[in-house]
Amino acid sequence: MSNHLDKFKWQKGQPSPNRNGRPKALKTILNSNFGMTQSQCNDAILSMLSMTKEQVQTECNNPDAPMLNRIIAKAMLKSYNNGSLYALESLLNRTMGMPRQQTELTTTEQTPIFVSLDLK
Description:
Layout: H1 26-34, H2 38-49, H3 53-61, H4 67-82, H5 86-96
Helix pairs in contact: 2-4, 2-5, 3-4
């Protein structure tokens, strides 16, 4: 049986419908353009998270600072000024991983059931 979508499938030898290919991951861009490994990026983020507000402002306005540091500093200041923790939470999740989540379940069974979900 013929599928009605067969005429839209990519045919071998034809130009690719996605000429630019898959977008590069952030770690690939940082490694190829700036020579930074993922651990170096994580170290930079963690060191900036331990700075005071004045130090982050200095880093943001420093033209000699690496672009990654300046971008992170700007996001941190914007989040701080808006009273939001979103940027800080995102940076911590990127470097330290998501925190472990626990769920409690109540049943009518007499035997307790323990469920653990690890989202690493």
